[in-house]
Amino acid sequence: MEFLQISPNDGFTLFAVLCLIIAISSHLEKTRWGAKISGPGLVIAISIAATHAAILPRQAPLYDLIWQIFVPLAIALFLLKADLIGIYQKGGRVLIAFILGALGASVGAVLGGYALDLGANENKLIAVFAATYTGGSLNFAATAEAVDFKQSSELSAALAVDNVIGTLYIILTIWLGGWAVLKRRFHWGAETADNAGTDNGESHSPPTLSDLLTMLALAAVACVIGIKFADYLGLDSFAVLFITVIAVGAATIGRNRLRSFKGEDILAMILLYMFFAVVGAGSDISEMLSTPPATFLLVGSIIGTHFLFLFVGGYLLKLNYRELIIASLACISGPPVAAAIAVSFGWREHILPGIATGVLGYVVGTFIGVGLFHMLG
Q: What stretches pass through the bilayer (predicted)?
């Protein structure tokens, strides 16, 4: 099987295989069982299988390129037709759901700490997992540094768990997004969004080359300006927020003109399918399985309590399934993934709230992790 292994530096071959994976997934999605998993879920699953078959490398310069260029470009493309009024109406509800989820994650971390024996670094493990499941991997790294968690073997295992659980969580939420029972139980306001998305005044004629190139150029310019501005302010990690503001600003100012352009959603989906393939390729299940069971139980406590707070509170407050899923992803996976899932489902009005709440998670996640570390210490 060695002849099938792709070198991390063989960028063109690697790109070709990723294209093959997303093309196969798009066809499988049209089958009865494939529709239940969805295209993004299939892409992730096939990529995980290819990596563990030693065909795809876990890390490669191309993967970094996809993270750095494809993801922000896809988000900008989809936001170029964002409806600010709809975002304003929905944004506050996603924020409420995010607060519920973040509170649940913190309570779950504390409960896990009291119920489990996690060894000498118990408080440090609780801190990093509480932080990462409020914001993202950025908070994992920042909290590990803040609490002096530098034991390489245990920290490496915790990172592997975070990476693989994060990937599996994305697959779970993709499945939840199409689950009929969830749609029935948490339907409030979702029908309005469906109706708004089915008739937005656009013609049904196919996109032209001029349409595609214009939208791609506008999205690229929005990304460059956002990244440069974030870099100038020393806020590189928050570049996606600046890109969002610029793209939405352009959409608002030129909404009448931009409405005539078509096809940006297709371009965005191609880029995001590449992103999902990279997410799957980077998952190391074998390293995760070597982690002590107590660590999995801690993660289970955090995510389980997160779900409990999110869906019980969401039911009482009549939040719909879209708001709950996007808020949950903003907590567990961070703003790029929350926005990517919103794009993949066509939930245009939830992209900006997902990014905004995800960035809020970046801001508060490290404080929560460090605070729990000292409280439990």
A: 12-28, 40-59, 65-82, 94-116, 164-182, 235-254, 266-283, 295-317, 324-345, 351-373
The angle, 0 to 180 degrees and rounded to 10, between the axes of the packed helices 152-177 and 293-316 is: 30
DSSP string computed for 256-274 = HHHTT---HHHHHHHHHHH
Determine the Cα–Cα distance for residues 64 and 19; give it in Å rounded to an integer. Answer: 16
Q: pTM, whole model, 2 decimals?
A: 0.67
- The tokens of 118 are what? 């996690």
pLDDT in single tens digits along all 377 residues of the chain: 566 789 999 999 999 999 999 999 989 988 877 766 667 778 888 988 898 888 999 889 999 898 888 888 887 887 787 656 555 555 678 889 999 999 999 999 999 988 888 888 888 999 989 998 998 776 787 788 788 886 556 776 777 787 778 778 888 888 887 777 777 777 665 555 444 444 444 456 788 899 899 999 999 999 999 999 989 998 886 787 788 788 888 888 887 788 788 888 788 888 878 888 887 888 777 766 777 888 889 999 999 999 999 999 998 988 888 889 999 998 888 887 888 888 878 887 788 888 888 878 877 888 898 889 988 87
What is the helix (H) or strand (E) element at residue 57, kind and residue range? none
The C-alpha R_g of the chain, in whole angstroms, comes to 20
From first CA to last CA, the distance across the chain in angstroms is 50
Q: What CA–CA distance (Å, rounded) separates 338 from 169?
A: 12
Question: Which residue, among 146, 165, 151, has the nearest Cα to 366 in the 3D structure?
Answer: 146
DSSP notation for 232-254: HTT-GGGHHHHHHHHHHHHHHHT
Helix ranges restricted to H, 4-121? 11-28, 32-37, 39-52, 61-65, 71-79, 84-115
Q: How many CB atoms lie within 10 A of CB 188?
A: 16
